[in-house]
Amino acid sequence: MHRFFKLSRPSKMICFPIVVAVIVASGIAITGCAVGSVREAHVGGLGKYPEARSIAVQRDSIHSSALDSVAVESAKKVLELNKSGSARTSSDQHLTLWIKITGTEAAQKASAPVGEALSATRSFLGLAGSGSDGASSGRLEMEGRLKAPDGREVGYVRWEHEGSPEALAATGGKDIAYKVTSLVEDHKSDYAARRASDERFLLTPSAQTLAPGEIVISDDEVLLARLGVGLSKHLQLDFWTGGFPIPAAVGGTTGDGHAIISGGAAGVVVLGFFDLGLKLRLLDETPQIPGVAIAYDMLDVFGLGAGGVGAVLIGGGVGGGGIGVVAGSNAQFNLVTVTAGKHFGSVQVSGGTYLLDNHHFLTQSAGFQSGCAAAEVAPSGVDGGAIDCPSGSTSLPRLPLQILPYLSGEFVFGPHVSLISEALLKDDLASSLFTTGARCLLGWEHPHGPLALDRIRLRFDVAALWRYREAQGGAHPKGAAMLPLPWIGLGLYVF
């Protein structure tokens, strides 16, 4: 039995927290800092080496100095203390940390207390050796490269500090070992190396989540804004808001689970929304099984259409779950997403479904009319004239559960470029949606002083959303064709 609800006026304050959050996150992104002697540190996915859980330490050169030996011995003590390293034979499956001194600068004179304080401050800010007396106080640089049993490099740490190299060698080795041990623990179950934007394709999610503390700010199609935050290794929080413009002459279903909409016969329609969601990674990907994630989004949809032209949410008419939209109205939905994904070398494939439910718990407002649309919608597409959408309050039956399966794939060419394709599948080809596009990731390889530029990535997506239009007769016959809509997306990642 349908439950009916009475519609009332929406509140415009619901988007205010999102605006504030985006401004705060933007400030964090711009002023992201990298402080301390460990200047760079990263470890890739170690899930391909499930038996390699201990770490051996080696000097990275046959011509190493006494300082290398001091750093290596200091690192071994840390690993033994953390039960990450022990004596082993060459046949053991283990990771190997190769430590190498990459630069030394002997102290030319004893530093005064003020000079020592300035030297420590420069080292903390990542400005070691750049001060006026940096050369006189001495300097030491070293790096650690983590290699898998098959010889592939899976991690890197760079350390630098002002001071006497002889006094700093043991500290540097210890710091590198502590950092590598921590990162190995964090990434031991990751099957694939983490890339910025891996948590999402274009219109569909992947089975991955944002890393703990990772922040993403994105804007797709100018109107579709998102703020995402990694809360833990398996949980992320998302705020979405904005709108989605639909050239009504195209018609047909367009958008993802946050904007599953259809255009009408004339003009442009925008369907806006506010979304608060949580995504939980239930299963980590392994060599044998895919990763699995589930998400829940509280989705509040509001109409921005003008001139009597509406849009259709999900389908055409009441039987297909359709609602006509009039400007100044809203309705609340529950969006559940289930996704499974697997990596095969440079290819990531994913599949899942959106489940859209209309059991609302927020107040809804006038303007959503059952069966009202901008145009008659038939299985073959839009083939009728515009229909006026009357205004005023009305009772609306609860819409049936909507299901939208999807398939997604990404081919990664390297650290910067990948190709993406998606299919959002309905019961007929004309109602389905397909995407083809390219993604470019830009960023810096190294930090610059206290600015953590190496932990910032810029994402640029350019794609086409394709809908199949069947051949139509009548006074204005049309042949079958694939109709594209352009898609452009921008994103800023701080991790």
List its salient traits.
26 strands, 5 helices, single chain, mainly beta, 495 residues, 5-stranded mixed beta sheet, elongated, 12-stranded antiparallel barrel, disordered N terminus
Please specify the SSE layout and strand pairing.
Layout lengths: L3 E3 L9 H15 L7 E6 L11 E5 L6 H16 L13 E11 L7 H12 L9 H4 L1 E9 L5 E10 L2 H23 L27 E6 L3 E7 L4 E13 L4 E3 L6 E3 L4 E16 L7 E13 L8 E2 L9 E3 L3 E16 L2 E11 L10 E3 L4 E4 L2 E6 L8 E3 L4 E11 L4 E8 L8 E11 L12 E14 L11 E14 L1
Parallel strand pairs: 3-4
Antiparallel strand pairs: 1-21, 2-6, 4-5, 5-6, 7-8, 7-26, 8-9, 9-12, 10-11, 11-14, 12-13, 13-16, 15-18, 16-17, 17-22, 19-20, 22-23, 23-24, 24-25, 25-26
Helix pairs in contact: 2-5
What does this structure look like?
With 495 residues, the protein is mainly beta. Strand 19 and strand 20 form a beta hairpin. Helix 2 runs parallel beside helix 5. The chain is elongated and about 90 Å long.
Offer a concise description of the structure:
The chain is mainly beta.
